[in-house]
From TrEMBL:
PANTHER family: BINDING MONOOXYGENASE, PUTATIVE (JCVI)-RELATED, TRK SYSTEM POTASSIUM UPTAKE PROTEIN. The keyword Iron-sulfur does not apply. This is 2-polyprenyl-6-methoxyphenol hydroxylase-like FAD-dependent oxidoreductase. Its cofactor is FAD. InterPro entries: FAD-bd, FAD/NAD-bd_sf, RIFMO-like.
């Protein structure tokens, strides 16, 4: 049996696997992705992508490729008899909370693009960056030891070969044979119910004029969920596991629409397991779980499913890159589980605390307060050895303006000028370590510490390299005095902060960077 080799093997070619391959290749990591199917699923599946996900895609150059929704867009849902019948109350995702004035937290808005439209964009970008994508290639089995992982693969022609990799990312879905082989259990609300669906095409744009795109159908003989993919395709979902023939499906679609005079094209049907389960560990040796393999979170208007998995891939990619390049010890990889598993549990709790799934909570959301959407989206807190001063006394999430640059949170967005170009602070991050400071002594320290540790640290001086229109407001956003500094990780999260200039910035920065990067020197 022949043996191929790569640095990282990704198993699973859905949104999360493709994102992992893309983020890794963008960082120059040799990556092979295998997917047993010949392409994307015929079901559109996920559709909503959050501003944070768009920030991650923007960093790798995909911003212009993905059409974004208006800045004030939010998914709206209403209970209706049918589209053409009576419309009842609108149900919010999060109870309204007035916040004046409105704060701009991101340079990005969300996107409403079906998964089968987004996956080819990610695939094309990953390949352009150097990732090796192999469809119709199945993982038969794998073994790991202290030196790496050896996977047995079967190609489309039936031939078998081995793939040796330093690390393996399991993005192989909610049933995850890799997770099962590792013996990793799961906890959470568990199985909720089995759903059946029918995907169809119909000219129903007139019913979208109010801005509502999701509908709970409530009429005698039909309780179902109807939503659009924004491209003429719609899906009707039934909360049962009943097989229906084409004639029955057409009749039920017509009942949900409330009209029989429209031409309907039935595209395909589906069967779905709705569950909420979090893996007991997101890693085992050199194998890492991501996406549904790590956590199944039912579809929500908060974007807790695919978006959470894409963030897993982003978190893991820079850490694998740092370890594989020899900059960090493998201890850095321990922080993947430490940072991402609590986020999955945070979203699990938020999901069942809200009205959409409250009836399915079965006690899993008891005493869980509903958090601000901007806090969940932009202000989740990481606690790990790759962050300093993010103690257990801190809440799991706050809005960025409430955090004010707290280590363990995403560095805040602010518009600045760099080389006479107006950019977001986020556009200056996510590639390497960045030290943001106003005092020149910090930049001298960053240069010296970077050489000592073999780490590329870019120092950006406030007022010189980046010029905010209001320096005081900018420093407040990052929690910095005039002599302070903020150390930001390659994933855009604040790792450490000094509010003011210490007596020995070189020693303080060196100690901090050595710890949070798990430096090899």
């Amino acid at each position: 049996m022949k043996t191929d080799s790569t640095s990282v093997l990704v198993v699973g070619g859905g949104l999360v696997g493709l994102s992992a391959a893309m983020f890794l290749a963008w960082r120059g990591v040799p990556t092979v992705l295998v997917e047993r199917h010949p392409g994307s699923s015929p079901h559109p599946r996920a559709i909503g992508y959050t501003p944070r996900t768009l920030e991650l895609f923007r960093a790798v150059g995909l911003g212009p490729r993905i059409p974004q929704a208006p800045a004030d867009f939010r998914l709206r849902r209403s209970r209706v008899e049918s589209l053409a019948g009576k419309w009842f109350e609108e149900t919010p995702w999060t109870p309204e909370s007035r916040q004046e004035p409105r704060v701009e937290y991101s340079p990005c808005a969300g996107a409403a693009l079906s998964q089968d439209r987004l996956e080819p964009i990610l695939r094309e970008k990953a390949i352009a960056l150097g990732a090796d994508i192999r469809f119709e290639t199945e993982l038969i089995g794998f073994e790991q030891n202290a030196d790496g992982v050896v996977a047995s693969l079967r190609a489309r022609d039936g031939s078998e070969y081995a793939m040796r990799a330093a690390y393996l990312i399991a993005a192989d879905g909610h049933r995850s044979p890799i997770r099962e082989a590792l013996g990793i259990g799961r906890k959470g609300r568990g199985h909720i119910r089995t759903l059946r669906s029918v995907l169809f095409r119909a000219p129903l744009e007139e019913y979208l004029q109010k801005g509502i795109t999701q509908f709970n159908i409530d009429q005698p003989g039909l309780q179902a969920f109807l939503t659009t993919y924004g491209d003429g395709r719609w899906v009707l979902m039934f909360s049962d596991d009943e097989e229906r023939d084409e004639g029955t499906l057409r009749a039920m679609v017509s009942k949900a629409i409330g009209r029989t005079d429209l031409e309907l094209e039935l595209i395909t049907t589906g069967r779905w397991e709705l569950s909420a389960l979090i893996a007991d560990s997101f890693a085992s040796g050199r194998v890492f779980l991501a996406g549904d393999a790590a956590h199944t979170l039912p579809p929500t208007r908060g974007g807790y499913g695919a978006n959470t998995g894409i963030a897993d891939a982003h978190n893991l990619a820079w850490k694998l890159s740092s370890v594989l390049s020899g900059v960090s010890t493998p201890r850095l990889l321990d922080t993947y589980d430490a940072e991402r598993r609590p986020i999955a549990w945070l979203r699990h709790g938020q999901l069942f605390a809200r009205a959409d799934y409250a009836a399915d909570a079965a006690g899993s959301s008891k005493d869980v307060p509903i958090l601000d959407d901007d806090a969940v989206e932009f202000g989740q807190l990481y606690r790990s050895t790759a962050v300093l001063d993010a103690g257990d006394e801190l809440p799991p999430a706050l809005r960025p303006d409430q955090w004010a640059g707290q280590p363990g949170t995403r560095a805040p967005h602010a518009w600045v000028f760099k080389d006479d170009e107006r950019v977001s602070t986020l556009d200056l991050l996510q590639r390497a370590w960045v030290l943001l400071a106003q005092e020149e002594r910090w930049c001298l320290a960053a240069e010296q510490v970077g050489k000592q540790l073999g780490i590329d640290v870019q120092c950006l001086r406030i007022g010189v390299d980046v010029r905010p229109s209001d320096e005081k407001a900018f420093r407040t956003a990052f929690g910095l005095g005039t002599g302070g500094a903020s150390l930001i990780r390659p994933d855009g999260y604040v790792a450490w902060r000094a509010s003011e200039l210490p007596a020995d910035p070189l020693r303080l920065l060196g100690d901090a960077l050595r710890q949070v990067s798990c430096a090899t020197r």
